Amino acid sequence: MDNLLTALVAAAALVAVPAFARWWLLARRPSLGTPEDRATFETLHTTALAAPALRRGLDAESAARSLPHVRTLLGAPTVAITDTERPLAWDGPGSHDDVADLMRAAIDSGTTRASGRAIVAPLAVEDRVVGSVVVLADDASAGLARATTEVARWMSSQLELAELATSRTALMEAELRALRAQISPHFIYNSLGAIASFVRTDPERARELLLEFADFTRYSFRQHGEFTTLAEELRSIERYLVLEKARFGDRLRVVTLIAPEVLSVTLPFLSVQPLVENAVRHGLESRAGNGTITVTAMDTGHECLITIEDDGAGVDPEVVRAALSGQNPSASVGLANVDERMRTVYGNAYGIVVETAPGFGTKVTLRVPKFSPDVDAAAP
After folding, report:
1. C-alpha angle with apex 229: 223 to 235, nearest 5 degrees?
2. N or C: which end of the chain has fewer CB within 10 A?
3. What is the pLDDT of residues 96-105, one digit of tens each?
4. Domain membership flag for residue 194
5. Co-location of 198 and 171 in the same domain
6. Of 263-272, 339-348, 355-364, where does mean pLDDT reach its minimum?
7. φ and ψ at 123, to 5 degrees?
8. Residue 103 neighbours by CB under 8 Å, 6+ apart
9. Following CA atoms 7, 9, 12, 17 in sequence, which dihedral angle do they give, to the nearest 10 degrees?
10. Which interval of the chain is the signal sequence (predicted)?
């Protein structure tokens, strides 16, 4: 009997110990935060949900997608998003007729207006009113008016980012057109001259070069997308160098060192080829004898490091500085253009770096982030 009693006590202890351990762990578990902390988290989470739609700009689709989150932020029975004339999305009882005059007053003045149950706060992009946020509530209190104003300011900042992205794309397209106009006449003239020199002496070679020329120009003048992959850019460079070798013969030697893992990296269209052309024009054409151009692309972890180096004549660093600043664009084919586009896409830290001196050749380096959400989304 004593043995049985001892066994029962031991069994009870085995059950009780895990239960006590669970209680002790739960009692010691860190708090999930104060009510204020949780409210802050919920607000930040809601704004994060609304932001992507607003980054597209202000239209009916973006308004409809962001409106539920804006209504959650304001906690009002009725919330609407409008342009300068009419509602783009409306959620809750009421109609545009109820607030038409107040909406016009807010848009014309560029300030929040409240009257009775209604509050209207303007949406502005660079001091230009583009729409409004409308709130209808049983109690249009001063606190709700303040909240509506702050939400409208935050929405305006997202719309400004959308317009900045659109402007950046337009700028890149303009710069790309300028680059094509700058490079094309020089290259076309030299390439056709080289091809013509083989028409009688080596018709088959002339035919092959003409096909290379057609493929190169087809890539260079394509009309879709401001981005490409490094692999595509290198294929275009290979065609370009085949044509230049036809002109220079054994004077031109090319070395390429490419890490396979960076071939899929996305980068601005025609951002490497102009630098190679620059090396040929200013490195080889301006000196007697043979010359070597080395193109490398290495994986450095988060970035792809691309260098174009020649052992040619080199140039005064002040001339390069003037070219990059736009003071002397004729001094370098596309150098300033590529530098400006890299900075536009990735930020000022990603401008090209040029190392040169008279008689010591030139080395141009550019860094390309291997992962960039905005670029990847815009890539073909």
Report:
1. 85
2. N
3. 877 888 888 8
4. yes
5. no
6. 339-348
7. -105, 125
8. 82, 96, 120, 132, 134
9. -110
10. none
Please tell me whether residues 169 and 189 are part of one structural domain.
no
Q: Report how far apart, in Å, the C-alpha atoms of 346 and of each of 44, 55, 149, 336 are.
A: 26, 18, 33, 15
pLDDT band at 270 (very low <50, low <70, confident <90, very high): confident
Q: Which residues make Cβ contacts (< 8 Å) with residue 115, sequence separation at least 6? A: 102, 140
**136 and 209, same domain (yes or no):** no
C-alpha closest to that of 183 among 117, 260, 244, 102? 244
DSSP-assigned letter for residue 280: I
Determine, yes or no, domain membership for 101: yes
Give the residue numbers spanning the domain of 322: 182-369
What confidence score (pLDDT) does residue 296 get?
A: 95
Nearest to 278 by CA among 251, 233, 312: 312
Are residues 241 and 256 part of one domain? yes
User: Within 10 Å of residue 357's Cβ, how many Cβ atoms?
Assistant: 11
153/200 same-domain check: no
Domain boundary among 161, 179, 197: 179
| Helix H or strand E segment including 369 | strand 362-369
The predicted pLDDT at position 219 comes to 74
Give residue-wise pLDDT tens across range 104-115. 888 888 888 888
35-39, 72-76, 161-165, 238-242: which has the highest mean pLDDT?
Answer: 238-242
On the question of pLDDT at 328 being above 70, the answer is no
* Number of domains present in the structure of the chain: 2
